[in-house]
Amino acid sequence: MLSATTDISDRFGDEARVLSPDLLDFGGRTRFRGFAVTIKCFEDNSRIKETLATPGHGKVLVVDGGASNRCALLGDMIARDAVANGWEGVVISGCVRDIAALKTLDIAIKALGATPRRSTRRGEGTRDIPITIAGTAINAGDIVIGDEDGVVILTSEQGKELTA
Q1: pLDDT tens track for 21-43
Q2: Fewer CB within 10 Å, N- or C-terminus of the chain?
Q3: Which CATH code for domain 5-163?
Q4: Residue ranges per domain, the chain?
Q5: Which residues pair with 131 in a beta bridge?
Q6: Where are the alpha helices (H) located in the chain, listed in sequence order?
């Protein structure tokens, strides 16, 4: 059973990292929990496409897209791959597109907004490195929990406390 982000925030106080409240829900689900897989990229979704085409059971992709609103880093085709590969969710500091289709998919997707423009693919971006979204640090392997109230990031040690 997923714990509500509000309860987790209350339990861990300032030790819980809470992402900025400007992320919007775009997927068919709003609740998710999993280990963070991180990507840092800017207006190039090559690593996102590559990563979501791999098994993602128990994982959440967290993308530092530089908060760009000039192009979308995720659309319906890549999101369908994420669903097919069992990803729990995708959190993007950037934009998505194809939002009517995204809302029909069984995956949680949070992003800053939507735009019809696609990103370029130049093979750029880095995976599984420490990233920062709106001043909040996220490391690969952190626990990412999201719901209608927002997104909370915990260390793996704090995550173990939730299941104890």
Answers
A1: 999 999 999 999 999 999 999 99
A2: N
A3: 3.50.30.40
A4: 5-163
A5: 138
A6: 5-12, 46-52, 76-84, 99-102, 156-163
Q: Which tens digit of pLDDT belongs to each residue from 85-143?
A: 999 999 999 999 999 999 999 999 999 999 999 998 898 999 999 999 988 999 999 99
Instruction: Show the tokens assigned to 100.
Output: 């009517």
Indicate the DSSP class of residue 21: T
Q: How far apart are CA 81 and CA 149, in angstroms?
A: 26
Amino acid of residue 128: D
Return the closest-CA partner of residue 90 out of 104, 68, 75.
75
d(CA 147, CA 31): 4
Summarize pLDDT for 47-86 with one digit per residue, the tens: 999 999 999 999 999 999 999 999 999 999 999 999 999 9
Model-level pTM?
A: 0.95
Which tokens belong to 126?
């880095």
Residue that has been written with the tokens 């993007």 in this structure: 92
